[in-house]
């Protein structure tokens, strides 16, 4: 009984081992390479697979997904003999698990070495400036070479990216100084342009202000000149009317020697008003002086000693109260009268003769009696 149970146990264990060797489950996006007696037999697809136990063996389980491998920085010499460190990232995918297993021993190491050699060939034909600014060109060159070389390994290189390019510390310092100088230069240029624009705008503003001030001064001068012209015209008209009135009054009053003596007496204080007149002697015999004055004036041609006829009084015009009332009554028509006066003055300035009456003919000088 005990022996039978032992045999059944051994048989069960053998069955379990047999099933484990026969049934193979392959995960999704994986591929199993099966060998029979060390020779490639078939490739297992994802899912449940059956193999011959103790004869077939799943040697490799290949990952069919796209993989990303980052390589450490590699020293590369540029065309101008500067050493830069470049680290890359490779995106690849296994397309043929059999070729990836039997065509190359370690495809990741092979891709790394191929990337390093290709990168040195590409960067060796560029200077530092081109290396730092031509990442896309380097990426395209690496992708083309790697894709062509890895096709027979059953690998497809999707993309190659440059993670970083690190120049030497001395070159970094020089580049920073150059960048700082360029920024300072741009700052100075922008400041100069700002000052230039400010100066231009200020000059334009001053120009406009000067033009406006000149126009305003011109209009003000024109208005002042017109006002002075009108004032001068009115003043000249007033003086002319006053002279005409005085002249007419003198002729109407028929002046004689007494009037001239009176005018002489009125002029005596004005004669003494000069600063140089320190001493002025009044004649003691004023009567004789007046007689002498009368006799002297008697000899003036054209002025009689005594005049006859009716004496006419000069009309002095209305009083101040009447003038104020007349001004208030005629305030509405004052502007029109002024314009008429200005027009008349303009006509007179252009050559019109005045309407003053001619002076009376002077009488011939009296003949002196013979001595």
Task: Explain how this protein is built.
The protein has helices at 2-22, 97-102, 107-123, 128-133, 135-150, 169-253, 257-271, 286-298, 320-329, 334-349; strands spanning 23-26, 30-36, 39-44, 47-50, 56-63, 66-70, 74-77, 83-94, 155-166. With 371 residues, the chain is an alpha+beta fold. Strands 6, 7, 8 and 9 form a four-stranded antiparallel β-sheet that branches. A three-stranded antiparallel β-sheet has the order 3-2-5. Helix 3 (107-123) packs across helix 5 (135-150). The radius of gyration is 66 Å and the shape is rod-shaped. The N and C termini lie far apart (215 Å). Residues 296-301 and 352-371 have low confidence and may be disordered.
What CATH architecture of the largest domain do you see?
2-Layer Sandwich
Quote the CATH topology of the largest domain: Tetrahydropterin Synthase, Chain A
Note the run of SSEs as H and E. HEEEEEEEEHHHHEHHHHH
Instruction: State the name of the first-level CATH class of the largest domain.
Output: Alpha Beta
* Biggest pleated-sheet summary: 4 strands, antiparallel
Quaternary organisation: single chain
Q: Which of globular, elongated, flat, extended, rod-shaped describes the shape?
A: rod-shaped
Report the span from N to C terminus.
215 Å
Radius of gyration: 66 Å
Mean pLDDT: 77
Count of structural domains: 3
User: Number of DSSP helices?
Assistant: 10
Q: Segments where pLDDT lies below 50 for 5+ residues?
A: 296-301, 352-371
SS-derived structural category: alpha+beta
CATH homology-level superfamily of the largest domain = Band 7 domain
Q: How large a portion of the residues is in β-strands, by DSSP E? A: 15-25%
What proportion of the residues is helical, as a percent range? 55-70%
Number of strands: 9
């Amino acid at each position: 009984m005990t022996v039978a149970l032992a045999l059944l146990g051994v048989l069960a264990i053998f069955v379990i081992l047999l099933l484990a060797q026969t049934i193979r489950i392959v995960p999704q996006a994986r591929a199993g390479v099966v060998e029979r007696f060390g020779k490639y037999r078939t490739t297992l697809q994802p899912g449940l697979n059956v193999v011959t136990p103790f004869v077939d063996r799943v040697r490799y389980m290949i990952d069919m997904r796209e993989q990303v491998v980052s390589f450490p920085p590699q020293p590369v010499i540029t065309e101008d003999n500067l050493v830069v460190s470049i680290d890359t990232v490779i995106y690849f995918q296994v397309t043929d698990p059999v070729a990836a297993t039997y065509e190359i021993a370690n495809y990741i190491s092979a891709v790394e070495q191929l990337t390093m050699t290709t990168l040195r060939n590409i960067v060796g034909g560029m200077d530092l400036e081109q290396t730092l600014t031509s990442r896309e060109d380097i990426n395209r060159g690496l992708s083309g070479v790697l894709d062509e070389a890895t096709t027979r390994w059953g690998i497809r290189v999707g993309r190659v990216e440059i993670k970083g390019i690190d120049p030497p510390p001395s070159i970094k310092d020089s580049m920073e100084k150059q960048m700082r100088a360029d920024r300072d230069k741009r700052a100075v240029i922008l400041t100069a342009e700002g000052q230039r624009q400010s100066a231009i705008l200020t000059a334009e503003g001053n120009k406009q202000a000067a033009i406006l001030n000149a126009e305003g001064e011109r209009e003000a001068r024109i208005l002042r000149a017109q006002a002075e012209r009108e004032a001068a015209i009115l003043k000249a008209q007033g003086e002319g009317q006053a002279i005409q009135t005085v002249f007419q009054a003198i002729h109407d009053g028929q002046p004689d020697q007494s009037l001239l003596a009176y005018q002489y007496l009125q002029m005596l204080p004005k004669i003494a008003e000069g600063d140089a007149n320190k001493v002025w002697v009044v004649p003691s015999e004023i009567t004789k002086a007046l007689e002498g004055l009368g006799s002297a004036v008697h000899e003036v041609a054209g002025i009689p000693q005594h005049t006859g006829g009716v004496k006419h009084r000069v009309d002095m015009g209305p009083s101040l109260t009447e003038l104020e009332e007349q001004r208030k009554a005629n305030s509405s028509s004052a502007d029109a009268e002024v314009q008429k006066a200005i027009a008349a003055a303009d006509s007179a300035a252009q050559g019109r003769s005045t309407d003053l009456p001619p002076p009376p003919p002077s009488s011939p000088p009296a003949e002196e009696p013979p001595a």
